[in-house]
Amino acid sequence: MVQKAKILLVDDRPENLLALEAILSALDQTLVRASSGEEALKALLTDDFAVILLDVQMPGMDGFETAAHIKRRERTRDIPIIFLTAINHGPHHTFRGYAAGAVDYISKPFDPWVLRAKVSVFVELYMKNCQLREQAALLRLQLEGGGQGGAVKESPGLLAELSARLAAVEEQAEALSKQLDDDSADAAAVATAAHLERKLTGLRRALDALEPGTGSGGPPLPPAQN
Known about the structure:
Layout: E1 6-10, H1 14-24, E2 30-34, H2 37-46, E3 51-55, H3 63-72, E4 81-85, H4 91-99, E5 104-107, H5 112-145, H6 150-153, H7 156-183, H8 187-208
Parallel strand pairs: 1-2, 1-3, 3-4, 4-5
Helix pairs in contact: 2-3, 5-7, 5-8, 7-8
C-alpha cells in the first residue's frame, strides 16, 4: 500500500486553511495544518513533507522568516516552498520570496486548478524519490549481506523483482518528465525531476552490473539521497 505524502499548510487564518484543504483534498494526500511559523517549524522536526504552502503575512514570525529557518535546517532545506500572499508589493517583494528559497510565489486570490496542479507535481516527485530510496536501500542490504552482490546473483528471482520494480519507477519518472516539458513547468520542478532521473540511472547501472556474466564484484551504489 503506497504511503500518502504530507503537505504542510501554513496560515494564521483558519478560513484560509479551510480553503486550502478544500482545494487540495482531491489530491488524496495527508494535509497538515500550522497556524504560525513556529508551529510549522515544530511539525517539520518530526515529519517529512512533499511541499509547503506558506502564507507570507503572519503575525510574529512571517513567511520569509519561517522559510529562512526551514532552509537553514539540513533535514528540511530541500522541501519545496510555495509562498501565498494576499498583497502584491511588486517585483522587489516577489524577489524577496524567491531569495528566501521559494520555488513559486502566488498572489491571492489564486486559481484553485493552478495551485492544485503545481502542488501535485511536487507530490509526484516526492513519491518517486521515496520509491527510489526504497529500491536503493533494498539493493544495498542485499549487497552488504551477500559479499558484494553474491546473494543477489545467487537469487535470479530477487534480481528480476528488483529490476521490475525499478523499471516501474523509471517509467513513471519518464512520464512525469514529459509532462513537465509539455506544461512548461517551473524550473525547480524540472531540475528536481532531472535529479531523480540521474539517481535512477545510477541504480539501474548497479543492477545491470549484477546480471550473470558481469563479474564477481558488486558495483558501488549511489549514496542514499533525499
